[in-house]
Amino acid sequence: MISLFLGELYSFNLTRRIVLVIAGCVFAFICNLVRTAILVWIGAHRGATAIEAWHDPAGLSILLVCLFGLWLLSLLMRRQAEAHIPTASTDYEHPPFRFNLSLVASVIVWLLFVEAGVHAWYRFHESRIANSRCVTMMAAARLGKDRRGTDG
Known about the structure:
By secondary structure, the chain is mainly alpha-helical. It is built from 4 helices and no strands. The protein has 2 domains: 1-85; 103-152.
């Protein structure tokens, strides 16, 4: 998604946008391979609990590496694009920006719909998991109490 945003931000042509999207996929794939290798190495040397502790920081660092990598690539592509554009004698540098209110409103409605759907899905599925864990934990606690009572 950031590739599409950067392509629009810098007004790239279709070819440069496709290159940016493909580069984003490649960056994400390579960064996730590195993240997986790091987490496996941590797990092999420090145990499974260390993987839990390092999972989120590793994911965040990979996210930032991909973000800044794509941003730098888009800046390089922008410089190359500006170097190949012949200078024209016009009175303005950029066309005026037009704000499309209907597009922005539809994107906001879509985001709210997606957020509500995700929230409802997790609420439905997590409620069943939470109840089964409580019952399982209570049964395990009773089992331990029964064993202590009969052994002692």
